[in-house]
Amino acid sequence: MRQTPPRERPLRVMPWWLALVGLLVAALLGWLVLDWLLGEADRAAQPDTRATLRIDAIRTGLTVVAGTGGGLALLLAARRQWIGERAQRHQEAVAAQDQAHRERVQAHAEAVAEAGQRHQDRQAQAAEHDAAERRLTELYTGAVELLGNDNAAVRLGGLHALERLGQDNPAQRSTIVAVLCAYLRMPAAEDDARETEVRRTAQRVLTRHLRADDDAFWPDTRLDLTGARLDGFDAAGCTLVDADLTGAVCTGTTSLAGATVVGRLALDATFDDLVCDDLRGDAEIVLDDARIGGEVSFERADLAGGLSCRRATIARASFRGATVHGTASFDATRFTSSASFREAVFRSGVSMDHARFAGYVGFRQTRFADMALFRWTEFGDETWFEGARFEGAANFGRARFSGPVTFDGATFARRPLVDQARATTASPHVWPEATAVAPLDDDWLLLTDP
Fold first, then answer.
1. How far apart are the C-alpha atoms of 376 and 361, rounded to whole Å?
2. Count H helices, E strands: the chain?
3. Separation CA 429–CA 424 (nearest Å)
4. What is the CA radius of gyration of the chain?
5. What integer pLDDT is reported at residue 143 of this predicted model?
6. CA angle in degrees (0–180, nearest 5) for 199-203-208
7. Which of 71, 137, 230, 372 has a CA that sits 20 to 30 A from residue 87's CA?
8. Gap between the Cα atoms of 417 and 392, Å rounded
9. What is the DSSP string of 248-280?
10. In whole angstroms, what is the distance from residue 10 CA to residue 347 CA?
11. Which of 97, 112, 130 is the last residue of a domain?
């Protein structure tokens, strides 16, 4: 805060008569001294020296008058000096105040100019932003209009226009991905080859920007393909964040081989073939109610999240060498051809209650690190648990084995439960140690816990 200098008392003007009084005082003092000295000279001196003494007295009186006048002159000179110094201080204070005022005026002018410049810059930026937004809107609207054209070639141009717009403008990518996913969700004629090519191009545009090792990678892209119709969807090596294919119809081979999955991966859809070999990530993978007419493959997959494949219908399945860290559930799933879990590792619980295996099923050297449930499971053909490791509880209660089954070389941390399980009498079997087997009728054997 600026400090105010102390106020000085106002200067009084010396009246002219004060100088006259001083002269009169000096004259009066000289006269008094002279009178006194002359009187003393007349009384004390001899007649012959009286004249000399009187002259000395007069000289002394005049000296007193002159000294008094000199003192008064000295006082006047000192006053003039004090007044001059005070005037100098006042001039300096006025000059300092004037300089401070000029500096404040200059600072205020500079602040006003700077504020005006900032306002102009903001206006320019706002105008530039508005122009850019209008241009983006025009480009986006034009590309979407192309995508809705009746001509397939024009629609292809719209796809590439949207892709370029998203590549140059990261803020628009989520909107563009949503538009492409919505296009794939729209119904289309199955026998229209041109439309099929447009949709394949849309799929390639999406997956092209989901590979983290590519310069064109669009991070945090979420695919909402619920109910979409996909043909040969290839997301191999992609990074999938909360991808949702619920209810989608996927013809040809759908490949997620080598993909990285985050969040949740919903695959409860209809597939011809589904390849998820070498899949990685912490996503929860959902295949509930999926329909896979060909093969589903999770070979060498490393799934940090859970796997839910309940009530699905699968022709062939291969989980060879896969590792599932979370809970895996295949409850009520139907495998209409064959299934292989060879060398798979289930680090958490696995449940196959009420599952049905119509053909070969193999659990050779499979590791069950936690509870394994096969209650009411139906095994239709060869069933192999050769070399399997059960490190937790194993329950085969009420399971049915319609073909040969072998537990040769299998190890159990606890005695498996097989109460009321049944096995055909038409094939040879190798059961875990201490398993009680008794004929039920001509066609079935009954397994009971000892």
1. 16
2. 5, 33
3. 9
4. 55
5. 83
6. 145
7. 71
8. 12
9. -EEEEEEE-TT-EEESEEE--SEEEEEE-TT-E
10. 99
11. 130
C-alpha–C-alpha distance, residues 79 and 217, integer Å: 90
Distances (CA, A) of 370 to 133, 205, 351: 56, 42, 10
**pLDDT tens across 29-67, in order?**
767 766 676 676 666 656 666 667 667 767 776 777 777
Q: How many CB atoms lie within 10 A of CB 227?
A: 16
Cβ-in-10-Å burial (0-12, 13-18, 19+) of 95 comes to exposed
| Structural domain range at position 366 | 220-448
pLDDT of residue 1: 47
Inform me whether the pLDDT recorded for 442 exceeds 70. yes
Beta bridge partners, 33, equal none
Q: What is the mean pLDDT of the chain?
A: 89
Q: Which residues contact 219 (CB under 8 A, 6 or more apart)?
A: 212, 239
Half-sphere exposure in the Cβ direction for 142 (13 Å, CA): 12
Q: Which of 79, 104, 130 is the last residue of a domain?
A: 130
Q: What is the DSSP letter of 192?
A: -
Contact criterion met (CB below 8 Å) for 309 and 291: no
Record the tokens describing residue 270, joined without a space: 């209809």
Quick: pLDDT tens for 162-198: 999 999 889 889 999 999 999 999 988 777 889 999 9
Phi, psi at residue 52, to the nearest 5°? Answer: -65, -45
**Structure confidence by residue, pLDDT tens digits, 201-214:** 999 999 999 998 88
- In terms of domains, do 241 and 369 share one? yes
pTM over 0.85: no
Question: Based on the structure, what is the number of domains in the chain?
Answer: 2
Amino acid at position 31, single letter: W
- For residue range 275-326, what is the model confidence (pLDDT) as tens digits? 999 999 999 999 999 999 999 999 999 999 999 999 999 999 999 999 999 9
Comparing CA positions, the residue from 206, 208, 133, 141 lying closest to residue 171 is: 133
Residue 194 lies in a domain: no
Q: Mind listing the pLDDT tens digit for each residue in 222-269?
A: 999 999 999 999 999 999 999 999 999 999 999 999 999 999 999 999
Please give the residue that has the higher pLDDT: either 213 or 427: 427
- Domain membership of residue 177 (yes or no) is no
Give the CA count within 13 Å in the CB-facing half-sphere of 208: 15
Q: Give the distance from CA 264 to its chain's centroid.
A: 19
Residue with tokens 């001083």: 22
User: In this prediction, what percent of the chain has a pLDDT beyond 90?
Assistant: 61
Residue 107 sits in the same domain as residue 224: no
